[in-house]
Amino acid sequence: MNRYPPTHRYSPAHRRALTAVCILATALGPAACAADEKPAATASAGVAPSPTAGSPGFFGGTDLAWVEITIAMDEELLPLLTLVPANGSDPALKALSAEVTGVHERELTALRGLHDQADLPAENPHKGMPMPGMVTPEQVTAAAATRGKAFDDLVRGHLEAHLRQGLRLAESERKSGIEPQTRALADDVLRTRRTYLNRLGKAS
Fold first, then answer.
1. Does the predicted model carry a pTM greater than 0.85?
2. Residue 127 domain-assigned (yes or no)
3. Which of 36, 105, 144, 181 is the least buried, fewest Cβ under 10 Å from its Cβ?
């Protein structure tokens, strides 16, 4: 069910422009994103009232961009991590990758729930978009042809970049987001990214 009138829904071009500004700023901050908050629709006879600002289901521009970007980043990381058991040589990295995979899969379930609740388009405009911390298909292909320590070093580098960018974006969501469920998920992301960056340093 659409929670907002069609006039307030983003066009693909609008979302891409918003994302470009946010990424160049290295944060989905208020100057770039807050102006695009979705106002609540006016209730009409026989129609349930839309969420109001600060209530679950009322998504601002920062919330929407963070959900879509984080989905894309998580989805692009997982194919790399599937290579670790066969290609890697470091037991600590293998254990960490397995744990990161499980956490990211659960995270994606929550993110996709928010995506559907916000009535965002099925096609994610950020999937495959070059940005800091985004694992590309080409990088996965290169990693698949590598074994042993060289592979471990590649994975550590890509995983560290992913975690650091995820941390920056989640910090921006906590600072500028307005939808409570999304902000709560960003709290979880902040905790896991910090934990794994610490463990990745110990595993290096």
1. no
2. yes
3. 105
- CATH code of 69's domain: 1.20.1260.10
In a domain, 50, yes or no: yes
Give domain status of residue 1, yes or no: no
Q: Which of 165, 143, 187 is nearest to 22 (CA)?
A: 165
Q: Is residue 75 part of a domain?
A: yes
Mean pLDDT, the chain cut into blocks of 10 residues (204 residues total): 38 44 42 39 43 74 96 97 97 96 98 96 78 93 97 97 96 96 97 95 62
